Amino acid sequence: MATGLVFAGGARRAAAGDLGVSLEGGYFGMTNASKSAKAIFGGSTGGFTGGGSIRYVFLRSLFVGVGAHYFTRDGQRVFVADATGTPFRLGHPLTIRELPVYGVVGWRFLPDSRLVPYVALGAGATSFSEKSIVGGIEDPPSQSQSKFSGHFMAGAEWGRGIVRLGAEFMYTTVPDTIGVGNVSKIYGEKDVGGLSFVGKIVLVP
Prior knowledge:
This protein is 12% helix and 60% strand.
């Protein structure tokens, strides 16, 4: 009986060297430029985001990871007279795309429990593009840029088997990406980052 209890206890302990691969999907809100986003998207700051990540655990709690998310949404070009005015939608399609790629260092709490909370901090680069169609022609031509981005995340992972479930909040900042023209200049908003919430399916071979 004593031997069995020892083996059972060992099976519940988290192991250093765990490699986890996750598939993620949820909602991203461009909350750092919320007025511009709501004007373009018609009242909402964002929409669906999807992606994935890989993490490797050291010392049972310390981990490093890399990941990427993809967000795209269609809206319309708008005219705003001033920051207090009502946006007037012009009917010309405008597509916004964001692709943040990042690396993080984090810490897992209660590594031996079934529910393992964690926090992480990191940096990366976010590709941002906007495409507008006026009269069937791109006007101006599609613009794309890549900017430094900072990332903070907090979440939890549930399970002890090969397949686990998780949920995660992430805050992203992408400074000096917009604000030199159009509606973002009127509102004085320069950052296309914001808050996201995703659900995760994690595979731990």
